[in-house]
Amino acid sequence: MTIFHHPSEVGMTYVEHMMFSLSLAGKFAYASILAIIHAFYPDIFVTSSTDAITTIMHQINHRQAQIK
C-alpha cells in the first residue's frame, strides 16, 4: 500500500513523479526569473515566457503520451 495515489494514477512511481515535478519546478523558476528581468527590460527575453510554456507543455504532453 502506498501513501500517495496520484503518482500511480499518472503512471509513475513516487520517485519518477518527484523528479518530473522537480524538473518542472526548475523550468518554472527559471522562466520566472526571465519574466522578472523582462518586466524591467522589455527588449530582452521577449519570447522567454512563451518559450517556457511551449517547452513545459511539450514535456507534459510527451509524458502523458507515454502513459497511454
Q: What pattern of helices and strands is seen along the backbone?
A: HHH
Mean pLDDT: 91
Q: What is the strand tally?
A: 0
Radius of gyration: 15 Å
Q: Could you tell me the strand content as a percent range? A: under 5%
Question: What would you note in describing this structure?
Answer:
This protein has helices at residues 6-9, 14-40, 48-67. With 68 residues, the protein is mainly α. Helix 2 (14-40) runs antiparallel to helix 3 (48-67). The longest helix is centred in the middle third of the chain and has 27 residues, at 14-40. It is elongated.
Which terms summarize this structure?
68 residues; mainly alpha
In brief:
Helices cover 75% and strands 0% of the residues.
Write the layout of secondary structure elements.
Layout: H1 6-9, H2 14-40, H3 48-67
Helix pairs in contact: 2-3
